[in-house]
Amino acid sequence: CCEGEEFNKMKTYIISGGAGFIGSHFVRMMLKDSNVQVINLDKLTYAGNLGTLSEELKDTRIKFVKGDICDNAITDKIFSENTIDYVVNFAAESHVDRSIENPQIFLQTNILGTQNLLDTVKKYWTNGKDENNYPIWKEGVKYLQVSTDEVYGSLGDEGYFTETTPLDPNSPYSAAKTGGDLIVKAYGETYKMPIN
Fold first, then answer.
1. pLDDT tens-digit map of 23-57
2. Annotated catalytic residue, options 86, 150, 152, 187
3. Is 150 an annotated catalytic residue?
């Protein structure tokens, strides 16, 4: 999917959900750095629109892969063919009303899709185990999970959330995003995976 010697010399980011509203803005911002290349992994559901990146897709430093973060064959192929430095996970089923209609797809993508990405990262970014039986991670790699303020529940007319606000999801969407965030945190604690 993403071959070529030139494409593997710079810092390489997988940006999942990079055709979505926020993800596409992030892709544009990242391409301002000349030492960055991007693999944009997106399923192109209702929320993904490659038209928002029509100019960026002319840049040789970006590759588009149509695929689902739940599909291990796709994530494994990307990692096996490229040296990946960072994963930024924007991919998610979103919108509260849609989650009320079909909660299962939210759980599949937002939790199990995130877990699939984490397992692929673990497979390709570890080099044995240390004396305490923790994985030895490649230098300079990081997994970044993009969340939503809705994991903290509802906010009144005043105030604000911080990262220390207790989690209090109130919809299938926010519960699924919370679950994805917590599995990332668990991989950070359990495997000492470099995460944010």
1. 999 999 999 988 999 999 999 987 778 888 999 99
2. 150
3. yes
Residue of 13, 86, 152, 173 marked active site:
173
Enter the pTM of the model.
0.90
Among 33, 59, 149, 189, which one carries the catalytic annotation?
149
**Is residue 130 annotated as part of the catalytic site, yes or no?**
no
pLDDT mean values, one per 10 residues, the chain (196 residues): 56 95 94 94 87 92 96 98 97 80 89 98 96 95 94 88 91 93 97 97
Q: Do residues 91 and 43 touch, judged by C-beta distance below 8 A?
A: yes
